[in-house]
Specification:
heterodimer, A: about 120 residues, mainly beta, seven-stranded mixed beta sheet, four-stranded antiparallel beta sheet, globular, B: about 110 residues, six-stranded mixed beta sheet, five-stranded antiparallel beta sheet
């Protein structure tokens, strides 16, 4: 398996622009997670899906952030409008199930810079 | 106060040294404790997990949990340059899907 795939790997945009991050989870994994990582705050959970349905979006910082999972093999995280404080590395992760032995596999991340 | 606290380092040790990485936490309801390793420009990967208190050993790595002190540790014996990475601790309640991560400790093992 190719693992979790994220695109783009790097994104540089200007404040106010719309940003869309993409994720393809590992086939057969029922759970998909979006995280944001910064030096100050570490790794923070933004939202997660189970069988394409959003379960917990309490970590989404503001209404400017939205996430969708139209099918089992694709998810997007959108920021509109983007702001400099959104600059971070955004990770997508997937898991087969919810037991502790179900490992969470992370993608390589998208490094977002908002100027 | 963050639920999980971790010293960011950086930590620099000579090859062959024993490394001790630590996290403290505030929520006594955490039941599952994990260590992730993150190489530069990569996503975190699970290194070890333990349930409740006690020790768990896997090769050169030992994870230790002290629930009474709300303190977990990861020991790396005979450290290698390939161990150079950021190590993140993570915790989970008995139920629920959310992982609570530390900010990570950057480790460099010098040949």
């Amino acid at each position: 398996d190719a693992g979790v795939i994220q695109s783009p790997r790097h994104e540089v945009t200007e404040m106010g622009q719309e940003v869309t991050l993409r994720c393809k989870p590992i086939s057969g994994h029922d759970y998909l997670f979006w995280y944001r990582q910064t030096m100050m705050r570490g790794l923070e959970l933004l939202i997660y899906f189970n069988n394409n349905v959003p379960i917990d979006d309490s970590g989404m910082p503001e209404d400017r952030f939205s996430a969708k999972m139209p099918n089992a093999s694709f998810s997007t995280l959108k920021i509109q409008p983007s702001e400099p404080r959104d600059s971070a590395v955004y990770f997508c992760a997937s898991r087969r199930g919810i037991t502790v032995t179900d490992t969470q596999y992370f993608g390589p991340g998208t490094r977002l810079t908002v100027l | 106060q963050k639920e999980v606290e971790q010293d960011p380092g950086p930590l620099s040790v000579p090859e062959g040294a024993i490394v001790s990485l630590n996290c403290t936490y505030s929520n006594s309801a955490f039941q599952y404790f994990m260590w992730y390793r993150q190489y530069s420009r990569k996503g975190p990967e699970l290194l070890m997990y333990t349930y409740s208190s006690g020790n768990k050993e896997d090769g050169r790595f030992t994870a230790q949990v002290d629930k009474s002190s709300k303190y977990i540790s990861l020991f790396i014996r005979d450290s290698q340059p390939s161990d150079s990475a950021t190590y993140l601790c993570a915790m989970r309640l008995r139920t629920g899907n959310q992982f609570y991560f530390g900010t990570g400790t950057s480790l460099t093992v010098i040949p």
